Amino acid sequence: EAQVTQNPRYLITVTGKKLTVTCSQNMNHEYMSWYRQDPGLGLRQIYYSMNVEVTDKGDVPEGYKVSRKEKRNFPLILESPSPNQTSLYFCASSLSLGETQYFGPGTRLLVL
Amino acid sequence: GQQLNQSPQSMFIQEGEDVSMNCTSSSIFNTWLWYKQDPGEGPVLLIALYKAGELTSNGRLTAQFGITRKDSFLNISASIPSDVGIYFCAGRAENAGNMLTFGGGTRLMVKP
Lengths: 112, 112
Description:
The complex is a heterodimer of chains A (112) and B (112).
Chain A (H helix, E strand, L loop, with lengths): L3 E4 L2 E4 L5 E7 L5 E8 L3 E10 L2 E4 L7 E2 L9 E3 L8 E8 L7 E2 L3 E5 L1
Parallel strand pairs in A: 2-11
Antiparallel strand pairs in A: 1-3, 3-8, 4-5, 4-9, 5-6, 7-8, 9-10, 9-11
Chain B lengths: L3 E4 L2 E5 L4 E7 L3 E9 L6 E6 L5 E4 L2 E5 L5 E6 L8 E9 L7 E2 L3 E6 L1
Parallel strand pairs in B: 2-11
Antiparallel strand pairs in B: 1-3, 3-8, 4-5, 4-9, 6-7, 7-8, 9-10, 9-11
């Protein structure tokens, strides 16, 4: 089944403790992206990747890192999480830029 | 970053009524997308628009790319209870490279 998977789905952590949210797609998509969703603000793009080893900042990249070492995986790294990074995070992928984006199920993160 | 103003923020309508929502921007956009998000799920693409003036339908949904390239609207005709959800506009601004910006969302509630 074609899908985008994210892990974990729920995470509670403390300020400053590094964490990684994984994202994987099995559709051989080139374009992958991370968003955060906050009430009243819609979805805001954090980082995106046009292909392997090609990443770029979105609208709200501060406090986040990403890597794209392989086509299928696009992990989101929070080196030192802070409470203002408490949010719902979505990973998405598409065949290429401009094509239909498929979203993962979301990761709900709470930083205490 | 880019700003997309989406209105209305919420709508509570009777089943069978038509619905209209829109997005406006201060920048020129070269792509407009409309998504629907159900509770606990990621957004799903409904309609994609790539040319000014373009009018595209998907079943009971119709969306248009504004002539000024600074706005787009989505209409839903003869609403049904399963139309309930949050609708997001999204777009790529002409001067923002490949970054995708989302509106704040319109929460639609349908009374049977």
